[in-house]
Fold this sequence. Notes:
Elements: H1 5-16, H2 19-47, E1 59-65, H3 74-82, E2 88-92, E3 95-96, E4 102-106, E5 109-113, E6 115-118, H4 122-126, E7 132-133, E8 148-151, H5 152-158, E9 169-172, E10 175-183, E11 196-199, E12 213-216, H6 222-240, E13 248-253, H7 263-293, H8 295-303, H9 308-344, H10 360-386, H11 390-396, H12 404-441, E14 451-458, E15 465-467, H13 468-480, E16 485-492, E17 495-496, E18 500-504, E19 510-514, E20 518-523, H14 527-531, E21 535-538, E22 550-554, H15 555-561, E23 571-573, E24 584-590, H16 595-598, H17 600-607, H18 614-617, E25 619-623, E26 631-633, E27 638-646, H19 653-659, E28 667-674, H20 675-678, H21 681-720, H22 722-730, H23 735-767, H24 780-806, H25 810-816
Parallel strand pairs: 6-11, 8-10, 20-25, 22-24
Antiparallel strand pairs: 1-12, 1-13, 2-12, 3-6, 4-5, 4-9, 7-10, 8-11, 9-10, 14-27, 14-28, 15-26, 16-20, 16-27, 17-20, 18-19, 18-23, 21-24, 22-25, 23-24
Amino acid sequence: MPVSRHDVRLAARSFIRHPGFTTTAVLSLALAIALNTTMYSVIDALVNPKVEMQDPDRLYHIVMWGDTHHRVDAATSASLLREGGDTYESSTFSQSSGMGGVAVEHDKRFEQTNAQFVPTNYFRVLGVRPLAGRLFLDEDFTASSQPVVITERLAGVLFAEGKSPIAKTLDVDGVWHPIIGVISNNSQFPGEHVDVWMPFPPGTQLSAIAFNLVRLRKGVSAELADQRLHVLSTRFASLAGELPKDAWFQLVPASVPQFHYRGFHIALIAAVVAVLLIACANLANLQLARGIGRSRELALRTALGATRRDIILQLVLESALLGGAGLVAGLLLTFWGVHLLASRIPPSVAEYVIAPQTSWRVLAFAMTACVFCVMFVGLLPAIRVSRVDPNELLKSGAGTGANKKSRQQYGVMVMVEIALSLALLSGAGIVVRSALHVKSAFKTDYDLTPLSAAWVMAIPPRDTAVLAAEVFGQLVTRIRALPDVAEATVYGGGIVNKDTVSVYGPDNAPRQIAVPLFSYKMVTPSYLRTFQLTVSKGRDFIEGMPSESEVIVDQETANVLWPGVDPIGKQVKFAPVGDNSPWVRVVGVVRQQSKMGTGFNATYQTLLGQTAKAARLGTIYYLPSTRDTLHLRGNRNQAFFLAVRSKLEPDRMPITLKTNAKNFAPYRLLFAERMDVFLGIRRERESHNFVAATFVSFAALALALAALGIYGIVAHSVAERRRELGVRIALGATPRNILQAVLREGNALALAGLAVGLILTRLTVDWLAAFSLEDAKYDAPLFAAMGALLFGVAVLSALIPGLRATRIDPVEALRSE
């Protein structure tokens, strides 16, 4: 079907004459295409990650399974794997530098990130090229300075723009290392977030470490390598004393992310596809309404010799121009949206959303979506309009109301828009409610902003016993000496099982109270001052080690153990009456706290739908004394928690703790982080807020498109019925009667769409179950509220053309016909 220059000019002139329609249609289509392509860029990053390595398809991880009794040491495993070297071109391995990553700093700029120890051939096996400097050489393994390679991301954080990090030094957990190279952020496998690599310390027996990354020889298939590995797996299972099905080596592609699709991704894909369908249905309706509104013009063209093919060609060409403009605008929005989304994805969401990337596949997808829209938006209305009998149109004229059947047909697509919009609104309601729930549930009674937390392991001399109170006090003294420390405390215990608590009753006779579980914290005297908890009765702990052990309880615990009695001065034993455990005196009561304040674990279990009995009794703070029997024994390392309040720079405090960890001996710092990160609060809030913001954006766009669809249909209906409405006004119809007649048509479409949409919300609940703290259940009140909101928007959309209809001049309406 040839297209002439005249046809293009005619189609372009049609859009120029109606700038409002053209702008609305292009913007709607552009937003729909941009949303779809941005989402597709995320999926493309998951399925086809951008990895800057040489032949990444030949790189495989070797994963070891089984050996539950640890009978095969690392050296034996390494020797066994080397026997399969005839299928490997090269092999290497990596090892995390330590729990919780590392703290890095340069020129007062700091960052917390992850680091890895690697052999000097690590980057050569990967086939990575440096962006600046060089990569590791064999002599770097014996170098005392231990050079490091960093990513361009970390270089951008620690160094000013335009300043090269090469030959500069980097402080890693208090140890200075020279920077010898910078590599691309994509020079690592999907899912890894490493910014610093350093060679293993000199003297490390690398031959005794089993390699876990291999590059297959050219021409060697993964199937052949897997068969060879299967033979070695049999020998490995024999050495481990396990059955072959219980212990084996597995070959896993290194460049393919081990990503498990979740309901979130399905729901997100469904959301953007729904927006595209809504936009297409909306534009198809507008095109159809506009085409039928031009029926008289098209009938005249037919009478002058234009064929049905010419009419279809003109309308499809108009849609193609519309789609082309929407594609260009959509791609511009896509590039902006990809950048915006990549910058807004919080680190805590990385497990189910990977930063999007643009590629030729994204462009191809955008063009495919555009073609679909053009066919859907242009072809269907063109076929429908071309079937209109021109003789009937010329005889009846426009505006007679004779096209009611046509309006009913394209009103079906409006019902589809309403149904899909309701599903999106319901999904947005689910995740927004969960985000608000998380915000309230993780609320604490103290300000978390200046607080940092750490996990410390006590390593006393072997075969000795050290008083816990003495160990805690020494560590707090060292922490207070660090810069920017306002206060510090050490605490342990957490949620501890206790079957019985003993107290003295009103008759001064000891009695036992059975309790299933309570939150018990062994603390230093500065605990309440560090967390800024208020004592409502009695006093706070006095600095120093008391001669008698003391406890402070919260009001809830006091009400359970001593109902109606002042607990100050009372004694309690955390054991049956006849046990040898000492009696401990209550010196203070802290005011009632929220669930988050009484124990994060209990609240988190509640959010997971588990029983949190700890919250029933509250919290007991126990201060051990010089005569306390609680010891840390040298034959068993014990971990406890450290909380630090910062004076000025709370973001820097975890770095300060890590860089000074070497001065804590014989204590080992295992982890340090901001308190809200340590408790998992930031992770929960960020992930739920991100999901809520995403679905609210989709729902808002769907709501706007649905409103536009209702408005377009009702406005066209008013234009079509102009003569009919003029006659009714001339016969005495009041403005109220006219408004009701117009709204009735729009309300019928909205109610029918809501009925279908309530069925679709069932799928919404299932897909978003992971982000609903109330479990996957059909929340009728929430969905009814979303339906009422959508219906209200539909009524408002129809109200504007309805009010315009009440102002029709019957004389002008009849004269124009």
